[in-house]
């Protein structure tokens, strides 16, 4: 148990437990509604975050999800994600009436400690670049701006053909995620050194959050995509493409990206979603052109920031977001 003495209250940062989930949902709704209300100048009420995703985060990183506890009630929450040598933190939120007392920073610091002890050399976050407080929050903690991340949306209008050659395949991985383990690390590491999002693949399969697709040529896996379709009807009518990563060294990596993108869109349509979201960093002009010509419209933008090691990034086409 970790102790933080902030002003007069005794604030403890501790690991999140399953019985904290309902309170964590309330904190998420209150803090984001407050932030949006201040931002646009009229009352905005955010939808409750899905219980399923919070439970899945706690299942995935039981020692990496934290709450700020004041006298037995929780007032803040934060979630870490260790993706090999890269880790990321998100979401992070504090009840409005407890903000600006160092609780957010204490939660962030606990996530960073967890990620470093899990072998992460670089830690990423994504936040709204037009909110001065959020910029200060991360910049003052040593994060440096890296890229603009677009949040783009497309309506799901119907099923489209995948246009694959005979030796190419898009397959859905339903049961045994271990068959992907090696390929995920190989492909991930080519894009960012040591990037390994395998835990999220396991989480999607085990917790039934959506679908995993692979792009294969013969027996070789050359790319993969993660799609979240877990939202219940009353929670939202959209799916989110969580990741699309393809081997940047393969001469047909663009084709593989296109096929995986289409597979995600088709599955979003089949599962009854009206829209599909993708979040991707704009690291060159190609990715935006590709998404725009595919019918994606910008809905928002965040800034991606990193702390720790510098590293280079390889590949022109990927959907990758460090936002929870
Ligand atoms: C972002 C958030 C988690 C921070 O929590 P918090 O407990 O208020 O954070 P802290 O008290 O540790 O730090 C807040 C810092 O912002 C500063 N700050 C407050 N208002 C500010 C403003 N308008 N402009 C610039 N800085 C501001 C505070 O002075 C403090 O910095 P300091 O310690 O250097 O003085 C909280 O505001 C929140 O829940 N926001 C809504 C959800 C959200 O945006 N999450 C992050 C998205 S990735």
Report on the architecture of this protein.
With 324 residues, the chain is of the alpha+beta class. It has two domains: 119 residues, Aminopeptidase (3-Layer(aba) Sandwich); 169 residues, Aminopeptidase, CATH 3.40.630. The protein contains eight helices and 14 strands. Strands 1, 2, 3, 4, 5, 6, 7, 8, 9, 10, 11, 12, 13 and 14 form a 14-stranded mixed β-sheet that branches. Helix 7 links the parallel strand 11 and strand 12. Helix 2 crosses helix 6. Coenzyme A binds next to helix 1, strand 5, helix 3, strand 6 and helix 4.
Q: Biggest β-sheet, characterized?
A: 14 strands, mixed
Query: What oligomeric assembly is this protein in?
Result: single chain
Count of spatially separate domains: 2
Separation of termini? 25 Å
What is the highest CATH level, the class of the largest domain? Answer: Alpha Beta
Which kinds of small molecule does this entry bind, naming each only once?
coenzyme A
Q: What CATH architecture of the largest domain would you give?
A: 3-Layer(aba) Sandwich
* Annotated CATH homologous superfamily of the largest domain: Gcn5-related N-acetyltransferase (GNAT)
- What percentage of residues falls in helices of 4 or more residues? 25-40%
Average pLDDT number: 94
Order of helices and strands: EEHHEEEHEHEEHHEEEHEHEE
User: What is the SS-derived class?
Assistant: alpha+beta
The total of helices stands at 8
User: How large is the share of residues in beta strands?
Assistant: 25-35%
Low-confidence stretches: none
CATH domain topology of the largest domain: Aminopeptidase
What shape does the CA trace take? globular
